[in-house]
């Protein structure tokens, strides 16, 4: 099977979050299952190193009003196609916004053009580039199935899948953009791209796709309800027979404490004492007191969704209980200020680094004792999977992929020897406070804490099983043709 994976980011070329890790890992994960995957990305400046001498396989004089080329390159050992459209993607700042964090006002055009080109690729516009399936990730790629439905290229259109990594991000725009999308009038309909009088990119993809996936079974069930569906629960329920939840995996070539070259000290489940050198390194990097109490970490966007408002309100209690916190993240300005203010109140107990740093994230997983993820909703989550792999015990809300991947350390699970973390119900100060106190109680029992770490590190969240499930989904989709 030949699959075109269409996404706005992919590790290691361009990354703002977990989407990049998933898209970057899929080609290798699926190669073991008879799937040849080509990744298609926008031509951001960060891709210049791999596109400098790339072959041009297609040219556009007018791709939704701009000149563009499709380039053929490589992402590691796997094929890569890149939409080279300088007027859309050669900019400073990030992939979605400027240096201040404000979204580009023409994001609708940027990702509509990207989706148009993806649909062309998936319907034969480039000779020799034939695909059985187009796999679109999130709203930035979700218009591709709509283009294949309403205005395909010259060849036979591929079957289509849309994966929802986070239904909260939908790509909604006013009706005035429709005239510039190069779609027939019939597409602006309730069962097309129209959404509450405007244009909905994710909604359009969910209407047009032959199959829909999301990134955990629990989240697949949650988004059918109003409190999680973000206005799309009606459509999700109508198409529930096409919906599958597949938990993300992690790449052991990147996330493995036994081989991680970024760490001061590598280790395994049998050599947990070697983690201490990493803990000392976290204390030094963050300017924390050196003692025997637990270090908690947060590696996250600082947003309401992630429950960071509740965490920052409980941070004084965490310190009063004897804990320390090392945070890496960015997001809402008010939350950034609140965490920085907490660090000023407790300069030796709380360390905050605003932004993202890949090696530091590895160090935190390898040196902190527990990772806090109090999300109000979490489609899958990857940081808890990294925590499990590194013996950094996840303390998580019981929602979405967090519920599917962490086994709560209740008495039955401890007695059975299967517990891997701490779960809590609800995102309230009381729920988080109780989870913190449970964590401190477990940490005070070194035998139980080591058991949690060993169980966590033995859990298998590689891409083997998830890759097999995607390959089966692709096969079933083609058999329905």
UniProtKB/TrEMBL annotation:
Record flagged with keyword Translocase: no
Catalytic activity from the UniProt record: [(1->4)-alpha-D-glucosyl](n) + ADP-alpha-D-glucose = [(1->4)-alpha-D-glucosyl](n+1) + ADP + H(+)
Gene Ontology biological-process annotations: glycogen biosynthetic process
CDD domains, alphabetized: GT5_Glycogen_synthase_DULL1-like (cd03791)
InterPro entries per record: Glyco_trans_1, GS/SS, Starch_synth_cat_dom
Highest taxon of the lineage: Bacteria
Example of a GO cellular component annotation carried by this entry: cytosol
GO molecular function: alpha-1,4-glucan glucosyltransferase (ADP-glucose donor) activity; alpha-1,4-glucan glucosyltransferase (UDP-glucose donor) activity
EC number(s) reported in the record: 2.4.1.21
EC top class named in words: transferase
Domain spans labelled Glycosyl transferase family: 291-420
Residues covered by the Starch synthase catalytic domain: 2-237
Task of the protein: Synthesizes alpha-1,4-glucan chains using ADP-glucose.
Matches recorded under HAMAP family: Glycogen_synth (MF_00484)
Classification via NCBIfam families: glgA (TIGR02095), PRK00654.1-2 (NF001899)
Name used for this protein in its record: Glycogen synthase
């Amino acid at each position: 099977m030949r699959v075109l994976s269409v996404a706005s980011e992919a590790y290691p070329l361009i990354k703002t979050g977990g989407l990049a890790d998933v898209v970057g890992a899929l080609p290798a994960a699926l190669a073991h299952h008879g799937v040849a995957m080509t990744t298609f990305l926008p031509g951001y400046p960060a891709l210049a190193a791999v596109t400098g001498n790339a072959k041009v396989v297609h040219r556009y004089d007018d791709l939704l009003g701009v000149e563009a080329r499709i380039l053929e390159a490589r992402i590691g050992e796997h094929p890569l196609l890149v939409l080279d459209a300088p007027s859309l993607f050669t900019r400073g700042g990030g992939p979605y916004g400027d240096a201040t964090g404000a979204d580009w006002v023409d994001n609708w055009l940027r990702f509509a053009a990207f989706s148009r080109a993806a649909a062309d690729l998936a319907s034969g516009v480039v000779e020799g580039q034939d695909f059985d399936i187009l796999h679109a990730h999130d709203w930035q790629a979700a218009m591709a199935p709509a283009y294949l439905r309403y205005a395909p290229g010259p060849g036979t259109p591929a079957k289509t899948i849309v994966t929802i990594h986070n239904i909260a991000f939908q790509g909604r725009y006013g009706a005035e953009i429709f005239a510039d999308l190069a779609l027939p009038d019939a597409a602006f309909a309730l069962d097309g791209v129209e959404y509450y009088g405007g244009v909905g990119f994710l909604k359009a993809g969910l209407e047009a796709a032959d199959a829909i996936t999301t990134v955990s079974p629990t989240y697949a069930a949650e988004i059918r309800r109003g409190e999680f569906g973000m206005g799309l629960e009606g459509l999700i329920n109508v198409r529930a027979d096409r919906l599958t939840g597949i938990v993300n995996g992690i790449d052991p070539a990147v996330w493995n404490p036994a081989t991680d070259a970024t760490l001061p000290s590598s280790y395994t489940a049998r050599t947990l004492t070697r983690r201490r050198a990493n803990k000392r390194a976290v204390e030094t990097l963050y300017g924390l007191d050196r003692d025997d109490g637990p270090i908690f970490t947060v590696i996250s966007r600082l947003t309401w969704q992630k429950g960071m408002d509740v965490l920052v309100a409980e941070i004084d209690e965490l310190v009063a209980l004897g804990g320390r916190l090392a945070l890496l993240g960015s997001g809402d300005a008010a939350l950034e200020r609140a965490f920085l203010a907490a660090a000023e109140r407790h300069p030796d107990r709380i360390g905050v680094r605003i932004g993202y740093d890949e090696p530091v994230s590895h160090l935190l997983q390898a040196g902190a004792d527990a990772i806090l993820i109090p999300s109000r909703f979490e489609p899958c989550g990857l940081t808890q999977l990294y925590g499990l792999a590194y013996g950094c015990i996840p303390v998580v809300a019981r929602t979405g992929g967090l519920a599917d991947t962490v086994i709560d350390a209740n008495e039955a699970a401890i007695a059975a020897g299967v517990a891997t973390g701490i779960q809590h119900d609800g995102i309230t100060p009381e729920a988080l406070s109780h989870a913190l106190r449970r964590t401190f109680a477990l940490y005070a029992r070194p035998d139980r804490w080591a058991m949690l770490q060993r169980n966590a590190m033995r859990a298998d969240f590689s891409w083997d099983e998830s890759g097999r499930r995607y390959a089966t989904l692709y096969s079933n989709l083609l058999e329905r043709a």
